[in-house]
Amino acid sequence: MAKLINLKINGKPVTVPEGTVIVDAAKTVGIDIPVFCYHPKMEPVGMCRQCLVEIGRPQIDRATGQPVLDENGQPKLQFGPKLETSCTTPVSEGMVVITDSPKAQAGQKEILELLLTSHPLDCPVCDKGGECPLQNLTMKFGPKESRFLFDEKHHAEKHVPLGDLIFLDRERCIQCARCIRFQSDIAGEPVLGFYQRGRHTDIVTFSDPGFDSVFSGNTTDICPVGALTTADFRFGARPWELKQAASVCSQCPVGCNLTFNVRREVKAGGGYVIKRAMPRQNEQVNEIWMCDKGRFAGYQYTEADSRLKLDPAELDQALSRAAAKLTESASDTVFLAGGRLSNEDFYNLKQFAAKLGAKAWLYTQHGGGEYTTAYGLAAGSNLGDLGKGDTVLVVASDLYNEAPIWHLRLKAAAKRGATVIVANARATKLDEYARFVIRYSYGDEVETVKGLPNKEKIGEAIKNANNLIIFYGSDGLGLARTTALAQACVELLSSYPVSQLTAQPENRSTGQPDNRITENPNNGLIGVWSTPNQQGALEMGFMPYPDLAAELKDKTVYILAADPAGDDPALAEALKAAKTVIAQDILETETTKLADVVLPAAAYTEREGTFTSGERRVQRYYPAVPARPGTKADFALIAELAKKCGFDLEGRSPLLVMNQIAASEPAFRGISYAKLAEVTEQWPIIGRSDLFYGGTGYENKQGLGVVLESNVSRRLTVQSQETLDSKLRPKEDELLAVPITKLYDNGTTVAPAKLLEGHIARFDGVFVHPATAEKYGLLIGGQAAVSLNGVSYPAKVLADDSISTGVVLIPRSFGIPIKEPAAVILTAITEAQEA
Fold first, then answer.
1. Residue 63: its pLDDT value, please?
2. Contact 5, 28 (CB under 8 A)
3. What secondary structure letter does DSSP report for 298?
4. What is the bridge-based pairing of β-strands 617-621 and 609-612?
5. What does the pLDDT average to over 20-40?
6. Distances in whole angstroms, Cα of residue 398 to Cα of each of 36, 789, 819
7. Smallest Cα–Cα separation from 600: which of 307, 271, 326?
8. What mean pLDDT comes out for the span 774-787?
């Protein structure tokens, strides 16, 4: 534990850990010191000088090394002749700080006056107006009038695109370098920098394409002026017009906390529309950050033109038709659900299937969920606590593309001293921050994990770890191989029981002592799923079926939040051969097009519910806008359908459904909406009236979520599985095609985001090594025919020199239906053939 330091700020006694800078120490007792360049998530640089204060330190006797005392026995203080920057000055014992003396206020006032000499009078039209730190600090600390003439102000170019998502107004920039430092120090992508000197200093982008970072939107949140704005919100609304709705991102398994800003608009017929998505602080999940996919695609699909809807009479008729088919088929029904459903939806679906005696499956190609439910993280886990002595293994996963905030958090853990081990068949961005990087051939991932204990230094890092967390993904893998990989990871976890098992003192339900044994936090297995709530489905017993096409044929199939027909031609044929297809979704898909009955669901932005993140944290989200006419929440549609089949399910409120979940699902014991809404004080303090300190992210008032309890009784006996051919070697004229995930894909929930069209297009193709392209006469940027399972698909040829020459990477959700490694043939398509 850090040594505690005692000091006084404006007469208030303050006790903080050694190393704390004055501006943070003041914050702990409610004293605001104005800042621009300083941000509590970044190292101080002292550039703007706005935080000037008077500092007195005890005089020290050089002979004894002890403080010199006055006639009252108190240490004599010595104030420096100059003001000092409180953001770069650590506290010291006995220090006295004065932030509001005439001298300090004069210094702060002069800095503001200096900044305003170069700042435009844009306040009436500036997007930052109403949440602008410069505006607020000028009103509080600044001069009442300027000594400079208007025509002496600096003029520079406005509306400069740093990329297609972020715009710069150069004359508003105050050169605080927050954006530059965020990109360099936190994101690890130094794509911004200063150019020229003096009043002509500008922010420029060094990347091509411009501002090439998946975290760019965060710079607009921490910019203390209106210099940086997002393409989706620029001139879109004023902050005081907006209402806030707390939510959870639905794009990946991280579960980032966010806030939707909404307002009524004429173009929506007077209805509410979402204007922007902003980060909501949760230091245990996403801190105060979010990725650009969550920001620019997180809700746009819910407003797509392809939204499904029916009028009330049509919806009732559709439910009646579906109920008749389900009653007729009964136990011969197959339920198939995707991971965007909420916990409440999955529970009602599970109950409905049980009452019919039907089978219910999870639609996914990422297996191993039986291991993440039994060996997942326990209550109290927080990636932000990982540091020296802890070990994290990331295998078969490109976290930067699959779960960007986890990438950031592991990067930060490595900086704090944690040992990060990355094992993959190709290079990923996390390699730069890993202590150990292991390359294997596709197909060797299981043997690689099993062999880690035999690698001297890596084995020691695992064996001697205080805590051990393993992330496993599906990079280049299908259902069977991810399941085998999860098993290998569990064997590794079990071989080195780094987490001590702790007896619980009492049973939460009875208050009596019991003998339950639980696992300590920050140890376990995390699946890097492709959907926000696959873990929730797994916790309730939903599992994928290995031969889905055979399972669907000649059956009545009820599909929710999934598009198997659009993903796989074999599944499309299987559905065409089904007796009846009932599809429930929010958007029109290939599956809804061939369905006999279509049920329109409300989007998650229009309802309340909960998701369970990959870290097993249950989090609550709230409605941002009203549900569209002719749609209902999935759990409510399921309940109405069940009622027409003669069964009673809870369909009135998701809160009531969660009460049933907590009572009947062991993993969710103790969970309630009230508990999920609980908050505690977080550091740093964000989202209050002091936007100059942490930016325009939102304070969390609606709940930090709860990690599910882990119980050793859920441990599995690791079963031997069928042996997989580890050597995936195509014939001489073939290449090994493997499925990978790109952050910006052409999937149902991303494609409608018009701002990301250019980013999506960058990954619309197949990736080969340049030497492979040359060998097969392929032109980088040109077209090729990809022959897979006897079907030819056209695709652009893209280069990746980090992969082997015998491999072709095929991104998921771009039209080539590859579920697992397969042999393909690439053939160049000439311009004449294209024509």
1. 87
2. no
3. T
4. antiparallel
5. 95
6. 35, 26, 17
7. 307
8. 95
- Residue listed under structure tokens 């002509």: 200
The whole-angstrom separation of Cα 606 and Cα 348 is 19
Q: How far apart are the first and last CA of the chain?
A: 70
- The answer to whether residues 601 and 348 touch, using CB atoms and an 8 Å cutoff, is no
- What confidence tens digit (pLDDT) does each residue in 598-620 have? 999 999 999 999 999 999 999 99
Confidence of residue 509 (pLDDT cuts 50, 70, 90): very low
Q: Model-level pTM?
A: 0.95
| DSSP secondary structure string for all residues of 523-556 | -EEEE--SSTTHHHHHHTT----TTHHHHHTTSE
- CA 803 to CA 811: how far, in whole Å? 14
Mean pLDDT of 230-258: 95
| 75, pLDDT greater than 70 | yes
- The DSSP annotation for 625-679 comes to SPPPTT-B-HHHHHHHHHHHTT-----S-HHHHHHHHHHH-GGGTT--HHHHT--
The tens digit of pLDDT for each residue in 542-589 reads 999 999 999 999 999 999 999 999 999 999 999 999 999 999 999 999
Q: What is the largest CA-CA distance in the chain?
A: 98
Q: Token pair for residue 443?
A: 């197909």
H/E element holding 319? helix 312-329
Query: Which residues make beta-bridge pairs with 609?
Result: 621
DSSP letter for each residue of 372-425: HHHHSPPTT--GGG--TTEEEEEES--HHHH-HHHHHHHHHHHHTT-EEEEEES
- State the Cα torsion 546-551-553-558 to the nearest 10°: -110
Q: What is the rounded distance in angstroms from the CA atom of residue 791 to the CA atom of residue 824?
A: 10
User: Quick one: which of 493, 531, 498 has its CA closest to 338?
Assistant: 531
Of the pLDDT bands very low, low, confident and very high (cuts 50, 70, 90), residue 442 is: very high
Q: If you ran DSSP here, which 8-state letter would residue 815 be given?
A: S
pLDDT category of residue 147 using cuts at 50, 70 and 90: confident
> What distance in Å separates the CA atoms of residue 324 and residue 317, rounded to the nearest whole number?
11
**Residue 4's CB: how many other CB atoms inside 10 A?**
12
Distance CA 619, CA 633 (A): 17
Sign of CA dihedral 272, 275, 277, 281: negative
Instruction: Name every residue whose Cβ is closer than 8 Å to that of residue 761 and which is 6 or more positions away in sequence.
Output: none
Mean pLDDT of the chain: 92
Question: Which residue has tokens 């932030």?
Answer: 99
DSSP class of 186: I
User: Quick check: 388 pLDDT over 60?
Assistant: yes
* pLDDT band (50, 70, 90) for residue 506: very low
Q: Which pair of structure tokens corresponds to residue 56?
A: 């007195």
Which residues neighbour 726 within 8 Å (Cβ) at sequence distance 6 or greater? 443, 444, 446, 447
Angle (CA) 665 671 672, round 5°: 120
Q: What is the mean pLDDT of residues 357-372?
A: 96
| Alpha-carbon Rg for the chain in angstroms | 29
Reported confidence tier of residue 517, pLDDT bands at 50, 70, 90: very low
Q: Are 226 and 172 in contact (CB under 8 A)?
A: yes
**Is 515 in contact with 460 (CB distance < 8 Å)?**
no
Q: Give the integer Cα–Cα distance in Å for 757 and 760.
A: 5
d(CA 478, CA 818): 9
Burial 745-780 (b: 16+ CB within 10 A, else e): bbbbbbbbbebbeebbeebbbbbbbeebbeebebee
Q: Which residues contact residue 686 at a Cβ distance below 8 angstroms, ignoring those fewer than 6 apart?
A: 281, 288, 693, 694, 695, 697, 698, 699
Quick one: tokens of 591? 């599956």
Query: DSSP character for 719?
Result: P
Left (φ > 0), alpha (ψ -120 to 50) or beta: where does 188 sit? Answer: left
CA distance linking residue 525 with residue 510, whole number of Å = 30
Tokens at residue 802, please? 């980090």
- Look at residue 700 in the predicted model and tell me its pLDDT: 96
The mean pLDDT of 662-668, rounded to a whole number, is 95
Element spanning 445, H or E: helix 445-451
For residue 60, what is the DSSP state?
A: B
